[in-house]
Amino acid sequence: STKKVNFTKTITSSQDPGQGHENHQLSLILSPNEGTLYDGSMTFTSNEPVDIVVLHEITGNDVKGQPTWTIDGKTIYAMSLIDLKSKSDSFEFTGAALALHSFNSKEFTATVSVDGWIRGQPTEVIMQKIEVQKEPSLLLSRTNVAATIPMHEGLYQGNSIFYIITDSSREDYAKIITEKQSWTVQTSPLIEKMPEEVLQKIFIFKNGVRGNGIYGHQKEIFSSTPVQELEYGALNSIVEVAWKKGQNAKVLESSEDVINAEKDGRVEFTKTGVVINSPQIIWPDGQMLVRNDNKTTDDLTFSGGQITKINKDEMTVTFVAHRAWGPDGKTIYYIITDA
Fold it and tell me: Which of 41, 103, 203, 259 could form a disulfide with 221, with the two C-beta atoms 3.0–4.6 Å apart?
């Protein structure tokens, strides 16, 4: 099967578990899974210079002196090392796993955006095996859990968009949105350093017509949706909009309306530099795929959608959250916001 994958996340490296790599640091972005192939593009920014590692599934008979990566000496991957020594870059990949790597023993933190496809059924994550071997009590953690996240309603060309907010590049905005939605928004400073070309714009109103927007005014306005494949991205740069004194405020319905209002001197912009991760769940003429079975079990595959329920009445969406391990070995869960 083939599964679309599109996500942005901030990760901290840990000691590379590969044999002979004990003094290196590694952050797995797409984990190695038997019979699975990843294909797509990645953009990243890191606080330390890093390289890119792509692993390729091979058999023992295929090992003929090329660079390899293995944990136990039994499951072996051919390793392609893209020697960048860079703090930010973009890369197109095809392989059984994708990671950021450093020959330095100092840990690094990176924010990555991935847009691509999963071909096959990723059911067995090698990094989970490592931590389970080190700490048997982690077997008590479920492989998948349900994660219910509040939705917001925005606008695109006068039509409704339902979206979620998971991360903010600055703590003050994270606190404002957390209080608004009663669900914790993570502070991820590195997403503010993503290249401008991967950022979309979201217009947030500081005054004007009262409503359910972040500041209690009209709905936020987006500059694109997943229909505009070459333009859409989940990372949005916040532009605050304020009506000038003496102006008759009204509801604006599109980015064109907002830009024209600014040109006419009716509103003023503040480019905050703040970036939020705000993937769209429902947009005009489309929505994220909802699974046929709304039960979240340990044997769920990545195919068939990442959402089990969309509730527009309660303004919530329930994702399948997948288990992973943090740099300290503790269980963490992540969602995949594909569109």
Answer: 203
Question: In this predicted structure, what is the pLDDT of residue 125?
Answer: 32
Q: Which CATH class is domain 2-140?
A: mainly beta
Q: Residue for token digits 């003929």?
A: 64
pLDDT reported for residue 296 = 65
DSSP 223-254: S--TTSTTT--SEEEEEEEEEPTT-------S
List alpha helices for the chain, DSSP H: 126-134, 171-181, 255-263
Supply angle C-alpha 147, 151, 154, rounded to 5: 155
Helix, strand, coil shares of the chain, percent, nearest 5, are 15, 45, 40
Report d(CA 234, CA 160) in Å as an integer. Answer: 16
Q: Name residue 203's beta-bridge partners.
A: 221, 239
Q: What is the residue extent of each domain of the chain?
A: 2-140, 141-339
Residue 131 is given by DSSP the state H
> Which one-letter amino acid corresponds to residue 160?
S
Average pLDDT of the segment spanning 233-254? 95
What's the mean pLDDT in 12-28? 89
Overall size of the chain counted in residues: 339
Q: pTM for the complete prediction?
A: 0.63
